[in-house]
Structures are given as structure tokens and as C-alpha cells.
Amino acid sequence: MFSQLFLISTLLVGIVTVAIGAPVAIEIPQTRYGNLTLNRRFISGVPGLPQCIDTNFPDLVNSFCIDENSIRAYCAPANNPSNQKECDTGCPEDTTCMDFRTESEGGPYAKFSICISDKSLKDFGEGGSGKVCKSFKTDIKSDKGTVSINVYDSTARPVQVSSISIYTHNQVFTKSNASTYSVIINVGSAVVETIKACVEIAAGIYVAHVIYAEINEAFGLQP
Ligand SMILES: *[C@@H]1O[C@H](CO)[C@@H](O)[C@H](O)[C@H]1NC(C)=O
Ligand SMILES: *[C@@H]1O[C@H](CO)[C@@H](O)[C@H](O)[C@H]1NC(C)=O
């Protein structure tokens, strides 16, 4: 469902070094609009497809996955985040739209999405009614990382499940009635970590994909 307009090349890079320095251990597609500064004007350090391509509305306020193949961004003029305009971007082939969030540190946080190479994702789900869990050995090597789960139905649309839970060695995160959940985890000094993710599916709901992504970093909002 991506538009040719937005897609010139699907060159995939293994490690992208973002402005704030830490390597991101996911594969991020590059496109014609490969000028990542535009994308990072508002949410610092967010890599991936530039989502605000109207030069009058260059600042990414936030974005989310409309479906498995497209991002809807809310874009604003420089220094005027309240005047927002929607901008939809298709994901390159062999990538999936995943939702993430920035750190909050007590204040507000922003949601953003990235089209991530399917090779970097783990899809562990398919099924109806009941609890589906899976454990993942994490690749997060910094103090903090971002873990996200997106749940899609067979038509590639987000589908709401009863709960999404993420368990680390010392933290439990749970969200009810959601189709996506993104958390910042503290890895601390742990070397090898396992992360368990569970979704609870209500009767009558059919889930085609439960997709797990992790980024070796926590993103912040620009001051
Ligand atoms: C990135 O975008 C900015 C703003 O449109 C532009 O001034 C700059 O030349 C671009 N940089 C590259 C490398 O394309
Ligand atoms: C989730 O949705 C169900 C059914 O609509 C509702 O009964 C329940 O209270 C909701 N739970 C939360 C925590 O919002």
C-alpha cells in the first residue's frame, strides 16, 4: 500500500548512527527523502523515513502506524507545534510500521513510528482468544532500550487486544485494550537479558501478527 512517490530506494543499512551518538540496532529504510534532519527537528534522534515532507510543515510532532504499511505524521511549522497538518507516508517493501515513544522523565512524551526491516522484527503471533507469550533474547546493549509490540489483523490493520504485557528481569509493563504498546526499559548493568511479551486476545478477535521490535536506545524530546 505504499506510494511510489515516496519510494526511490529501499537500501537497508544495518547500523545507523543517529545524531545523539548511539547505534540503533535495527534496519532502517532509506528513501529519496533521506534527509534525516527534517525528521529529527522535533523529536530528537528519531531515525527512519522522513515523515514531514511539506517544507512549510517540517517539524514532526508525532506519528503513528495507520496500518502495517503506512505512517501518519502530524507535522507543524518550525516553532509552532500547535498548528498541525497530517502527512501520510508509505513504508518501503519488506518493512513493517512499528510504533514507539520517547522518554518522558515525568513530563510529556511523544509517539512516533518507524518502518523497520522485516528481518529486524520478530512476529510471534497468530490466533484467537487466549494468552500468547514469547520470550526474546534482547540485543539491547545500552542502559536503556525501547521495546514495542504492534498487533495487526489479517487485513494489516491494527487490532485491539485485551492486554499487551512486557516483562524484563525487574520490570513489568501492561496496557489494556490496545493494539500497540511501547515501553522504555532499564537494562542497567545486566549483560544478557530476556524479554517476555504476552498478548491476551478476547473471544471473537483474530490476530494475524504480533510483532516485536527493540531499539538499542531510548529517544528523548528536544528541549
Ligand atoms: C536537508 O534539508 C535541509 C532543509 O530542507 C536542506 O537545507 C539541506 O541542504 C538538506 N541536506 C541534504 C544533505 O540534503
Ligand atoms: C477494556 O475493554 C473492556 C470491554 O470494552 C472493558 O470492559 C474494560 O473495562 C476495559 N479495560 C480497561 C482497563 O479500560
Structural write-up:
- This protein has one helix spanning 36-40, and strands spanning 12-13, 16-17, 23-24, 28-29, 59-67, 70-76, 85-90, 95-101, 111-117, 122-123, 127-137, 144-152, 161-167, 172-178, 180-186, 194-207, 209-215.
- The protein is mainly β and 223 residues long.
- The protein has one domain (59-215): Jelly Rolls (Sandwich), CATH 2.60.120.380.
- The strands form six sheets. A four-stranded antiparallel β-sheet has the order 10-17-12-15, with no helix packed on it. Strands 11-16-13-14 form a four-stranded antiparallel β-sheet, with no helix packed on it.
- A hairpin with a 5-residue loop joins strand 2 and strand 3 (23-24).
- One 2-acetamido-2-deoxy-beta-D-glucopyranose binds at residues 176-177.
- Keywords: Signal.
- Residues 1-21 form the signal peptide.
